[in-house]
Amino acid sequence: MFETLILMLDATLRVSTPLILAALAGLYAERSGIVDIGLEGKILGSAFAAAAGAAVYGSAWIGLCFGILASVGLAMIHGFACITHRGDHIVSGVAINTVVAGLTVTLGLDWFSMGGQTPALSGDARFTDITLPFADALASVPVIGQIYSNLLSGHNILVYLAFAMVPVTYWVIYKTRFGLRLRAVGENPQAVDTAGISVAFIRYRALIICGILCGIAGAYLSTAHNAGFLKDMSAGKGYMALAALIFGKWRPVPVLLACLLFGFLDAVAVRLQGVELPGIGEVPVQAIEVLPYVLTVLLLAGFIGKAVGPKAVGRPYVKERE
Amino acid sequence: MSQPKVPVWVNVALIPFINIMLAFLVSGLVILAIGEDPIEAAGYLIYGAFGYDEGIGYTLYYATNFIFTGLAVSVAFKAGLFNIGGEGQAYIGGLGVGLVCLALDKTMPFYVIAPLAIIGAGVFGAAWAYIPAYLQARRGSHIVITTIMFNFIASSLMVYLIVNWLKEDGRMAPNSRTFEESAWLPYLHDFFLPLGIDIGSSPLNFAFVIALVCCVLVWGLIWHTRWGYQLRTLGTSATAASYAGIDTAKVTIWVMLISGGLAGFVGINEIMGVNHSLLLNFTAGYGFAGIAVSLMGRNHPIGIVLAAILFGALYQGGAELAFELPNITPEIVVVIQGLVILFSGALEHMFKDRIEGFFIRRAVA
Fold it and tell me: Where are the transmembrane segments (chain B) (predicted)?
């Protein structure tokens, strides 16, 4: 029983990682007042770029760089449309998701001639699992040792990075000058502008951070979690991250918990496939799969708590001129 | 003195034309980047879409779906709502069609099934839009997020229903049994052949006519009824609408019901017209494409029909293109679609303001 739980929590960490990275990416964007529905497209674009880079240069790190570049590039297109040209944030996000969905397959077929996939990655082209110090020695210790060596140890570097990004984000958002300005821009851009700070510049910087984090999330999918790029491999993770962002009410630690909850539900769904539960019978996998979305809808509707986003989110800021 | 106005043709023709040309230009660069000749590619695409009778039939068959989802998005747009859930509403609309056909096809004639199936599509699609609409109108949750969530919920629900309940017994393929012919919408080529007109055999079916009827109805509803006036007022200014005594919550819900019903009609074309069984993922992105169609068609039924035919041509021509040039996937069409959304939606102000400014200055001078 305990070992099953450890295994499920282990799976939870792996599934949650891209959600955490993408949800934090969305947090920077939305806290600065930019709605980012394009998380999905950025993850997919980065997954492709990272896998392609890793396949060509044989290094997961070079792949990661390509992934981040692609994702930041897409974030800049989003910024150009939403900040510079006051376009609709949602429309821009949908555009990015659509373009990327088509472009990854088109370019993939041309570059690798494998029906839109990238070659299978192995060795240095993938992020491999890290064994934490003393993990092997402690493996026989009951409970604590098992947790340490089976649950906490043995993940790749990006998993640890994702979890490390949570306190970092907390610090940036709440404890730095940039974070204060970022939050202010999302709540009341006029006030920030009056103070002589460029609203557009802050929002662009928020989107660059958003792009970097989505880039890591995408690289994780194709070069760490899987060994190569598959068509549409982001499979709605960007949208689920968006749900987690709302579920976590735009705050770093609750967002982390929401991602872990959604990841855990995923692990449960896999585990319960075809299993008869006593007294309930077989629970359809789909019923557990939809829970993150149902929970988010219920939260948004105010049935479980209240989710209030940044006040100026989604509204283009037009500088007043005399 | 009246304010100088931008000529109508600039807004309805020139700006959409520039946007689509930009989208084509960038896609042309992509094709160039993968080492093919864009002009040659365009030639295959146009030939595939319009060059022969079957091609035209396929183009119009795809266009039928785009008209439905394009209208769905634009009705909501007109009221200032962004219905991104067309995909889910179309999916559930198909469920409505499928259930009616599966229940009645053995006992009832076509004339009974067809209207009931159409109602089924509309009611199921509308019902799926009702919940996000209600939550937006009465509980203030954002309709974009809820409709996205409902797309995923619809997808899981359909997998569950088809795999666990509606799947044909003893078969592995996740689709329902094929309907009896009494539940098939007639193909247009079957309709024209007795009249001596051969239009080739394509999946183009009677749903295309229904789509055109929907265009007329939507046009009448939005521009020629009191209710349509309320809808447009809400879309222009929600504050003005509530000052004028319009029950904005009620209008929001009604608009979304109509929008969802229109999206649900995709099910008629796909389930009753072509596949003749209920299957997974028949919506294939038509719901999202509706956003591009609606933006391209400037939210007007005539524009939507034209944009739908354009996208239908891209889908059909894209298949032809991929056949002729194996280096290119049909997904290149998705790139074009995304670029259309980018240029005519997200970046609409980039050129519009300048072009309009140019014409206003000229009118003043």
Answer: 12-35, 55-77, 89-105, 111-131, 143-163, 204-223, 251-272, 278-295, 302-322, 328-347
Instruction: Using CB atoms within 10 Å of the CB of residue B88, give its burial: 0 to 12 exposed, 13 to 18 middle, 19+ buried.
Output: buried
Q: Does the beta-carbon distance from B160 to A284 stay under 8 Å? A: yes
Q: Output the domain CATH number for residue B48.
A: 1.10.3470
Decide if B99 is inside a domain.
yes
Look at chain B and report how many structural domains it folds into. 1
pTM reported for the whole predicted model: 0.90
Helix (H, G, I), strand (E, B) or coil at A305: coil
Q: Report the candidate in B174, B151, B160 with the shortest Cα–Cα distance to residue B285.
A: B151
CA–CA gap between residue B293 and residue A15 (Å, rounded): 35
Q: Across the interface, do A96 and B342 touch by the CB < 8 Å criterion? A: yes
Q: With b meaning 16 or more CB within 10 Å and e meaning fewer, what string describes A54-63?
A: bbbeebbbbb
Is residue B83 domain-resident?
Answer: yes
> Are the Cβ atoms of A100 and B338 closer than 8 angstroms?
yes
Nearest residue in chain A measured CA to CA from B352? A85
d(Cα B227, Cα B239) in Å, to the nearest integer?
A: 17
Least CB–CB distance from B341: residue in A94, A105, A286: A94
Nearest CA in chain A to B23: A99
B152 contacts in chain A (CB < 8 Å): 236, 239, 290, 293
Which of B135, B331, B345 faces A106 most closely, judged by CB atoms? B331
The Cα B30–Cα B46 span in angstroms is 18
φ/ψ (deg, to 5) at B279: -140, 170
Q: What is the nearest CA distance from A191 to chain B, expressed in angstroms?
A: 24
Is B360 within the bounds of a domain?
Answer: no
**How does pLDDT run along chain B (365 residues), one tens digit per residue?**
456 677 888 877 888 888 888 888 998 898 888 888 888 888 888 898 888 888 899 999 999 999 999 999 999 999 989 899 999 999 999 999 999 999 988 888 989 999 999 999 999 999 999 999 999 888 878 888 899 999 999 999 999 998 888 888 777 788 888 888 888 888 888 888 888 777 778 888 999 999 999 999 999 999 999 999 999 999 998 889 989 999 999 999 999 999 999 999 999 999 999 999 899 988 888 988 898 899 888 889 999 999 999 999 988 988 888 888 877 888 888 888 889 888 888 887 887 778 888 888 887 77
Chain B residue numbers with beta carbons less than 8 Å from the beta carbon of A290 are 152-153, 156-157
Residues in A lying within 8 Å of B, measured between beta carbons: 37, 77, 80-82, 85-88, 90-92, 94-103, 105-107, 109-110, 116, 236, 239, 242-243, 246, 284, 286-287, 289-290, 293-294, 296-297, 300-302
The residue range of the domain holding B152 is 37-326
CB atoms within 10 A of CB B91: 30
DSSP string of B33-60, one letter each residue: HTT--HHHHHHHHHHHHHSSHHHHHHHH
Interface predicted TM-score (ipTM)? 0.86
